[in-house]
Amino acid sequence: MSFSNFPLSPEIKSALANLKFKEPFPIQIEGIPVILEGKDILGIAKTGSGKTATYVLPILHLLKLQPSRKTRMVSALILVPTRELCAQVQNFVHEVSTFLMPPVKSLAVFGGVSINPQMKALFGVEILVATPGRLLELVDVKAVDLSQVKMLVLDEADKLLNPGFKVELSKILALLTNKRQTCLFSATLTSEVLALQSVVLREPVTIKIESEPEQEVQINQTAYLISDEKKGPFLRELINKHEMNQVLVFASSSQKADKICDKLVKNGFDAKAIHGKKSQGARTSALKDFKDGKLRVLVTSDLLSRGIDIEFLPFVINYELPRSPKEFIHRIGRTGRANAVGEAITFVTEEDKHHFQVIQKKMGTWLTLIPV
Description:
- The chain is of the alpha/beta class.
- It is 41% helix and 17% strand.
- The chain contains 15 helices and 14 strands.
- A 7-stranded parallel β-sheet has the order 3-4-2-5-6-1-7, with helices on both faces. Strands 10-11-9-12-13-8-14 form a 7-stranded parallel β-sheet, with helices on both faces.
């Protein structure tokens, strides 16, 4: 099947051809027709499975069928949990929209940067991609009106239901009309996601994309039994030994990410740290350099384990284990994408062994720990 089989406008199909989109992913094959029919959808598929295009393409198609409005009332609202994902989604909307005449105006709004330029840019926006906190700030100053939202997307819904977002999400939902189409996407089907879908979705079509066995082997995993004091030297040894020119290193906290990065830089490695305590400018710059292949090592907390698409990333290293098996899966899912083989390396201390067994049991994958 190709994208030409979908009942999308010729302009959108031309955009996809120019953007080198070839065969649609399973979530797109099942989800795009459902959204085009105006039905609510609950989509469960792992990170990197093509969820963004699944909802963006139908939204653009349907909005082009309506007259554009030069007001502060947005027609489509896409809520995401992180600034990076917010920018990434809006960038894809913009890329496709440039092929439409006239283009559909879109905007990404998130915290960590000045609110004033966002307030000014909101007039005439039809598709708004937002993080919950900044969106509510803009609502409070009457920079945006959500009363006429016709299409709502909750992307990475399981993350949006974390304690830090839950109250904000409830406030936003209360501002929306019930006469809307809602798309809820999540990498996992948790009890919280099920509870949310019963409230926000009307007779939804549920699409659950199971990971295909042949896709699982795209990530080669290795685990090393190592002491904390040996981690730094061994990390540098691995990067050199395997000639890692692009490697994403995960730490357990912002402070630890900075320490790992500082040590790498002192030893001559081109490295930067990125986490929630960095300025948005620093985060955007570091991520862009890393994606463009200009930065060799990017050290991060779990900020980047969700929703960030770094195509053909060859290496991920878990310098420290995350708290939950779910986050571990999202971490290693940064590699082995787009049918490319990736390497996921994990450092495990004696104290970590039981927790790592829990992670492996959840994944259904068992690794032999290699002593260092």
